[in-house]
Amino acid sequence: MLSCAYSDMKSGDRMDVSKIDAMLAQLRAGAAVASGKPVSGATTPGVRETNEGGRVDFSTVFKHSLDQVNNSQQNAAKLMQDFEIGAPGANLTEAMISMQKANISLQYTLQVRNKLVMAYQDIMNMPV
After folding, report:
1. Any idea which UniProt keywords this protein has (predicted)?
2. Does residue 55 contact residue 85 with C-beta atoms inside 8 Å?
């Protein structure tokens, strides 16, 4: 599949990997925040990942994640609506990719919620 993408490119053309690099950096930063390590480089403005004790503030990280899922779903819905009404510059490929990203992020969020509920139930069922 990847070779097809390269064969479709003309000689001298280069793939734009800046978005992929940005996404990888964001994933690495999220993994560092989740593990409690200090984040090197720029962080998301307005998000305070650690509290006064230097620990990761779970509620802030979780809220930020939920906001990102919400934003991706709203962006995908807007792109699809623009394509449906025939807005100039609307791109089906971009809209479909955005929809898939929003779907994956929602599924991931549901899995995290299910794990949290399961952990809560396990703790509540422990004998005292």
Report:
1. Bacterial flagellum, Cell projection, Cilium, Flagellum
2. no
Which region holds residue 41: left if phi is over 0, alpha if psi is between -120 and 50, else beta? Answer: left
Cα torsion 67, 68, 70, 74 to 10°: value is 130
Greatest C-alpha distance within the chain: 69
The region that residue 127 occupies, defined by phi over 0 for left and psi between -120 and 50 for alpha, beta otherwise, is beta
Beta-strand ranges (E) seen in the chain are: none
Q: Indicate the helix (H) or strand (E) that contains 113.
A: helix 92-124
Contact (Cβ atoms closer than 8 angstroms) between residue 33 and residue 56: yes
pTM of the model: 0.56
